[in-house]
Amino acid sequence: MKILITGTSGHLGEAIARLLKSNNEDYIGLDINPSAFTTHVGSITDKELVSSLVKKVDFIIHTATLHKPHVGTHSNQDFVDTNITGTLTLLEEAREQNIKGFIYTSTTSTFGDMLTPKPGEPAIWITEKTIDIPKNIYGVTKNAAEDLCQLFYRNHKLPCLVLKTSRFFPEEDDKKAVRDKYDDLNIKAIEYLYRRVDIEDVVTAHLLAVDKVQEIGFGKYIISATSPFEQHHLMDLHTNANAVVEKLFPEFKDIFKRKGWKMLPQIDRVYVNAKARQELGWKPKYDFGYILNCIAADKDFRSQLSLDIGIKGYHEETFTEGPYPVLDI
User: Fold this and answer.
1) What is the rounded CA–CA span in Å between residue 181 and residue 261?
2) Residue 315: is its pLDDT beyond 80?
3) pTM of the predicted model, to two decimals?
4) Are 103 and 208 in contact (CB under 8 A)?
5) Which domains, ranges and CATH numbers included, belong to the chain?
């Protein structure tokens, strides 16, 4: 079995390539930027290049993308070219070469406006059945690429699985108010309750998807850390998250206090990963309970894989207002 991985100079692409390489498994890595894990430098929109590479593989894991941090620095057309046209190019070659399966890395950002409840409403319970209402060009183009995957399965029987990942980036939070109020590891630890996943678990999910794609045919899966919350918690989460967390984890308050950390007053959504655990056999390791145990033992809760990859950034230039320019959309 040989896999074409797109985006091998990025966080997730490199992570998948690292694991395959450590297991002495062969892969082809494609990215517009060179790196130690990229075997071919070029664009996913280059049909001739893509065709030459797809001929050599059995599966494609497509992680290459323009991300939300690029919304403020790239044009809408750039997003269409990379996220839609690039995905279409790969799908067409996958169909032409009778690839065994196509794994597409998408994002929970496609849910967009569904992620923010109004005052007095409960937090939102987000599953694969939740309607996508993208609120920026990033979400629109990722959503369109998901539809392309479904179309190629429907019309051409190309097995495709879509993995909608939550946050796993190591960079600081994109909102200045959050950066000013919370230590970086503090807010990341909290996010494991409802909207973050460790990159090691994301890699595991992708490789399980490769194993399952022919059997399943088509499916969408939320890839996020297992949340301890249940639906009856939703109203209280949006009014007094601290009380809900303390009831579930009585030890958390003292553990956070020793670190000088604090809990968010409100939690607005909960990503539910039950379908991925059930259908892919995915067993994510990194959840809030694991995080608390690490903190209590004075251990870094981040996986070694995430530490090895480190912070890559999304731009060559630096910005005074944060890790990248952010538009409030």
Assistant:
1) 10
2) no
3) 0.94
4) no
5) 3-301 (3.40.50.720)
